[in-house]
Amino acid sequence: MKYIKLVLIGLLMGVISTGQAQSDDKGVVIDRIIAKVDDYIVLKSELDRAYLEFLSRGELSQGNAKCQILESLVINKMMVAKAEIDSIYVLDIEVENNLDRRMSYFIQQIGSEERLEEIYNKTIEEFKADLFDQIKEQMIVQKMQGTIGEDVKVTPAEVKKFYNQIPADSLPYFSTEVTIGQIVKIPEVNENRKEEIKAQMLDFKKRIQNGEDFGQLAKKHSQDPGSAANGGELGFFKRGELAPEFEAAALSMKPGEISRPVESQFGIHLIQLIERRGNTYNSRHILIIPQPSVGDVDDAKNFLDSLRTAVVVDSMRFEVFAKEHSDDQVTAGNGGFFSDATGAMRVSVEELDPTLFFTIDTMAVGSITKPLEFRMADGTDAVRIIMYKEKVPPHQANLLQDYQKIRAATVANKRNQIMSKWFKEAQGEVYIHVEPEYENCQILIN
C-alpha cells in the first residue's frame, strides 16, 4: 500500500483555526461528499481543512499530498466502520473527558476562557460540540490501531536483519544526543493555606444558602477550566469516574444539597448534587487549587538538595530516588531519564525544551544541578534537579549506539505489514466509494 501513514488530522487547532467553508451567491454553504465508507462519509471541507493543516506544519511530501491525506481520511472512516462491525466502541463519557483535557490545555495556552471565546467567537460548549464527533472518531481509530497491532514483538535477530537490509547510504544521521534525567518535586501546600481556602468555601456556601446563585459564583471563582463557564456543572458521570473524595461527597447528598469543602488531588471543592439517575449523577462544583507559598517551595528545594548530596556520593542512587520520589510520572518510570519516541533514553538536543537545553549547555557531563524552579508541561510550578549523564556526538545510525531506535523501526515495519494485511481483508467487508475526480489518487490500491 502506498501510504501507510495514518494521519489523525485536525486535533484542536484543525477545527478552530480554519476559515469558513465556501458559500454560493446566496450565502448557502457549499460542501459535498467526496468519499464514502459504509455509512461514513468524507466531505470536501474535511479534505481542504486537513490539507491547510498539513501546509501550516510546513511538512514536505513525496507525490500528491492531497491524495495522501484523502487516503488517510478514507482509512480512518474504514477503521471506524470496521470497529462498528467488530463491536469496538468508545463511550461518550470517554470522549467528554478527552475533550475536557484538550480544552483545559488550550485555555492554558491562550490565557483564559474569556480570551479563547473572544478570539474565536465561540463558547467553550460550542467548541466541545464542534469537536465531539471528530475526537470520538480519532479515539476509535486509535483503539482499532491498538487492536490490530497489539503484541507485536521482534527478536534481536530480526532487528539485525532489518538493519542489514538498509542500504548504507540510506542509514539516518543522528545529531548530537544526550542522556539526561530529572527528579521533580511539586511543593506541597501548607495546611494553613488549605484552611484559608476551606473557610472561603464555607463563605460561598453561606452566600448560596442566603440566595446567591451557585452557577454565578462558579463562573467567577472556580479554577476548573472545563466546567467554570458552565456554572460549574460537570454533567452525568458513573460511579468510579470522578475523584473518590468528590464522588463520596456528591453521592451522600440529596439533590440541591451543598457539601462542606472537599479536598481531592485536584484541589478543594464545594459540591452541589443536581440529579441522580440510577448509577449516574450530575453535579456542579467550585474548585480552588491551592498555590504553594515561598516556604513550601523552599521545603521542596531542601528535600531535593538532600537527594542531590546522596547522588553526588553514589550516582547510581539517582534512578532509585527518581522512581521513589519524583512527581513527574513520565520520567519517574525511566529512573528519571527522558526518552524519545522509540523509548530510547537518549534524546536529540534539537528536541529538548529550550529551558532544559540552555541548562545542560552550562553543565559538564556527569554533573547534577542544584534544585531549580520550573514549570511543568501542565502548568504546575515545581522544583527539580537535573543529571547530565552522557553526550553522544553526531553519527550515522549503527546497532551498537542506536539499537533501541533500530528495534523501534523494526517493530513499526512489522506492524505496517500486519496493517497492510488487515486493510486488504477489511476492504472486502466494507463498501468504499471515492468520487471520480479523485480516481487518479488510486486510493487503497497497492
From TrEMBL:
<dbReference type="InterPro" id="IPR027304">
    <property type="entry name" value="Trigger_fact/SurA_dom_sf"/>
</dbReference>
<dbReference type="InterPro" id="IPR023058">
    <property type="entry name" value="PPIase_PpiC_CS"/>
</dbReference>
<feature type="signal peptide">
    <location>
        <begin position="1"/>
        <end position="21"/>
    </location>
</feature>
<dbReference type="InterPro" id="IPR046357">
    <property type="entry name" value="PPIase_dom_sf"/>
</dbReference>
<feature type="domain" description="PpiC">
    <location>
        <begin position="278"/>
        <end position="373"/>
    </location>
</feature>
<dbReference type="InterPro" id="IPR050280">
    <property type="entry name" value="OMP_Chaperone_SurA"/>
</dbReference>
<protein>
    <submittedName>
        <fullName>Periplasmic chaperone for outer membrane proteins SurA</fullName>
    </submittedName>
</protein>
<feature type="domain" description="PpiC">
    <location>
        <begin position="175"/>
        <end position="275"/>
    </location>
</feature>
<keyword id="KW-0413">Isomerase</keyword>
<keyword id="KW-0697">Rotamase</keyword>
<keyword id="KW-0732">Signal</keyword>
<dbReference type="Pfam" id="PF00639">
    <property type="entry name" value="Rotamase"/>
</dbReference>
<dbReference type="InterPro" id="IPR000297">
    <property type="entry name" value="PPIase_PpiC"/>
</dbReference>
<dbReference type="GO" id="GO:0003755">
    <property type="term" value="F:peptidyl-prolyl cis-trans isomerase activity"/>
</dbReference>
